[in-house]
Amino acid sequence: RKMYEDLKRVLQESEHIVFFGGAGVSTESNIPDFRSQSGIYSKKTYPYPAEVMISHDFFVTHPKEFYDFYFSEMVYENAQPNPAHIALAKLEEMGKLDAIVTQNIDGLHQKAGSKHVLELHGSIHRNRCSGCHRFYTLEEMKENRKEGIPVCPHCGKILKPEVVLYGEALDNAVVEESIRCIAQADTLIVGGTSLVVYPAAGLLQYFKGKHLILINKDMTSMDHKADIIIHDPIGEVLKEVASSIFSSSSAPSLRMLSKVQLGTKF
To answer: What predicted TM-score, i.e. pTM, was given to this entire model?
Structure first.
């Protein structure tokens, strides 16, 4: 348990925390990851590999098959934030967490209350017409399907999720803001990611702060550089460590929360 105590101490001392997260943050909300044994890539029920089916080329050439896969495997609109999302939102509320940099596209950080969320791979909740560029919510996207393919009711062109597909570049503005936040952080928590997806994983090289913390079930390529490594489920870790900080905090916004309210979250 020493690692938990060390993490608690670091979080208490830190003033500019950035969280860098991957699929493992959302698996505890019952959203499957990609690369584990039970992940999306291991499924054999589709005629093409998952990497192919969520590529830009496949979206253009096989829109119906793309959307069959997308709505079945990528969209989990009923998923709820887990203790990891909630703890991070509270750390931001306390003024300790500056930003969340996420590879996830599910919007659960925002659903938990986080404000400064940098979505490297976009979001299922933002969609645009490929013709007139009108914006559509996920619900509107699903309502405007013809033979399984979402189309714009105004111009008839296909709608596209603002999700970064294979073969597409990351959004420059999001990358630059992520780099700025990571470079200014005194503590970087990396959670729920195997750090094999680039260019996202490459952003860690910009961290020059005091404490690098890795919370992941498996080993990563950055373990040798970390101050604290915890191989437990991230929701369990952040719930235990962060809740003790909240209970001892004198932050006005948290003092107003009753024990009952905190109890329902943690």
So the answer is: 0.89
